[in-house]
Amino acid sequence: MRIRLIEIAHARSGDKGDTANIGVIARKPEFYPILVQHLTCDRVRKHFEGICLGDVERFELPNLHALNFLLHQSLGGGGTTSLKNDAQGKTLSSLMLSMELDVGSEGIR
Amino acid sequence: MKSSIRIASGQGFWGDLPSAPVAQVRKGPIDYLVMDYLAEVTMSIMQKQKQRDPRTGYARDLVPLLAEILPDLVSRKITLITNGGGVNPFACRDAVMEVARSKGIRVTIGVVLGDDILERLDEMVAAGTSFDNMETGARFGAIRNSINSANVYFGAMPIVEALRLGTNIVITGRTTDTGLTLAPMIHEFGWNDHDWHRLAAGTVAGHILECGAQASGGNFSADWRSVPDLAHIGFPIAEAYPDGRFIVTKHEGTGGLVSEATVKEQLLYEIGDPCNYITPDCVADFTSIQLRQCGADRVEVEGIQGRASTEYYKVSMAYHAGYTAFGSLTYAWPDALEKARTADAIIRTRLADGGATFDEIRTEFLGYNSCFGPRLCPAYEPEEVVLRIGVRTQRKDSIEIFSREIAPLVLTGPPSVTGFAGGRPKGNDVIAYWPALIRKSLVRPQVDVVSS
Hints:
heterodimer, A: alpha+beta, Alpha-Beta Plaits, 4-stranded antiparallel sheet, two-stranded antiparallel ribbon, 6 strands, 31% strand, elongated, B: alpha+beta, 2 domains, 10-stranded mixed sheet
């Protein structure tokens, strides 16, 4: 079964210099293992191809059923140096949530 | 000791909702109002203002705000804590004192000083502090001569000292956002400066409050339609207890929403490694935080673990890094996107013909790819698109050439174009941010208290 991440998660993004951070939160505790399994650094790097020019780091927060991603070199230099309309990466959380996942035959309930 | 205190966020950044602090003071009981004004480059903007006029260099919005709410603060026994002193906390205090005098109100104001190390940089470099960029590793020497502000981030402790001296207004320069909220907890509950778990709890409360309504329903991605009355959104309040537990809430009768989901989104906002949330006061572990909805618009936060703070303060410096300018034009159907792309090519040719040089020219098509970049360019033809061109350069004359080249495209380029009102694009000074570390032993915060 193919779903969009937005069906099982919500997110918020922001900036630290040229690094964007994206927090992804499971809408229900039982969706958290799906995030852990599918949202690998590789998968996220591919999804942000052309935007994220550096490394992707991932941190787990099982207590909040959430993952935190750092996308380095993603904001056109960051801060006041950046020429991007979204220099603070505020909408990158939405781009993350647009990701399509193949969650297997069981799907989600 | 009080059994609990209520700390209210009145401002998430310089320029946030003006009615928020007024509502926090009047719409229900609070003990402390915390006002965070300082983003990373705010200090350098204030430094520039102070160079032009030595009586400025702080968040001047505070003056009309206090003219309105000072009587409420005093009659309701609410203490104000703010980092709005910027690069000139004394001038800020004088302006606030003048408001108090004009209203015949007695106040005791504490000022935290010592964060400004601009004049001491050379001496500190000579004594062995590198000030190399803590994020990129770049060497300080490359930008030393362009620095126009340098401030140490102090934590909660200097504010605690000011509170112990009986102040009802505390004005600081560069203080961490989290320290503003943690300080009253330390003061009221008598926590010691090695009580890492409780200090971490107060720090987490500070992180939740520091962006204002982002914790109470603003910018909420899970289900934004479900948030009631955003027009009158209530800013968050931390109801704190001596054991480190706290409840995130907001005043009854205000708009917005406090739920586990709204608090989670703010907890994840602009963090790095969640196990190591480093402040001058402690290192907080965000993987220990436990949330529980305990009533309408009430979320209990507990279980927070912390560790010893580091030997270093963070230093925030700002330096001049050239100029930017932005221009935009709107193209309509048919072939809106193709016309915008053609116009972009024309302007780039004309800029080169004119002898302008740039470190970067960035073209984005608003309504098409400015948020998601090349990744999700839709396969449809937009009915209209905004061509947005940004340039960055070290040369002011290149900015002037650019600013003259936008409007002519209306009569000398592809058809069906509008959106050029508002005059030529203006150049902006780029004030870039340089984070570094300094040993805590090299800097000493001072507290100065006066009463009217």
